[in-house]
Amino acid sequence: MKAWLKKSWIWIMLVIAMIAILWVKYASGDVTSAQSMIDRYKVSYATDGPSNTLVQFQKNINIPQLGKQEPTEFEMSYSDETDSPVLTFMDTESDDLYWIGCAYSLANNQIAFQYSYQDEDNDYTSSAEVWYKVSKTGKLEETSRKISGNAHTGTTSQVESIIKSYQPVIGYLVQRRMNIETMKSFTKYLHDNSKKIVKNWTKADDSQRDLGDKMQKERKQKFFSATFTPNYSKSQWKKYILERANQLGIRGAKIQVDKLELDTAAYLDYDYELTSSFGDDDSEQEAGYYSNDIGGDGDDVFTVIDANKVKYLVVLPLKLYDSANLDSVTLTTQERNYYYTMDGVDDAMIKAFVPADSQPTKAEITGNIVIAPPAK
Asked: Is 0.85 surpassed by the pTM of this model?
């Protein structure tokens, strides 16, 4: 009986010890390996120059609401300029004029609260930098502070208030999210392995880009094979263009094929929408329209209409919206039926066009021809 009680007591003590270890780990933050940190937060961008390194991470760090301080979300990044490794936690509310967050420095094994607020003209700036040592339990011990303020962007008392409100946030970060020892080991790992990290990210990014290019090429091929291409003769196009001009009430229209300077073409195609290329192949313009040609011999040759001494740019359809979708095409000017443009091509758009095995109606052919007036 005594032996049984003795064994039970040992087991109870072991369980208590395990609970204590887990609590200490939880209370002192997440101590974990550098590689598992990278796996958890995932590198979103990495570059390694001769004098600086930058590594940015995808996953943000969330801090719940603490007292009156609203929930905080940090974007994490690593930088190393002139051999000074720093792990930065930037509040996602930051922008070009307002920056707030904290940073861990490997050089002095401390964490700093950093704040800067500038007016739009950069004439006035309020700022703060407060450094803390962090105990093993995560308690912050201030070692130095530098504060500036003014009436335009915040007085020193207002800056002091912001510092005070963020102290619990930094405390929570080092107690519940990532303790100071983890910051130290992770920053050192990033410093020692920056070239490998950049190389791995670049390789993965190139692979993802290649996959994206392949998928885009497949979508483009599918689009072009599944939809009708209006390959009409020069005389047929002229007939349809004149019909379209008549629909729009343009009287005395005369079709010309002009060699235009780019600035003149831009004046007619003033939103630069109609000559943008689709994909890498310039011969396959953006699915929708191309502005040249029905007989031209180069990129600077355009089909135009001259009517009563006014020139209109004619934009012929590469693909045809069907009758049901013709009226829902995005209009880029208020002159309805003059100036259609399209979004990028994807699989979902195929059904909006005349199928490859169908014959378009006359209304679909003429309705897809754009006659763009000059810029006002």
From this structure: no
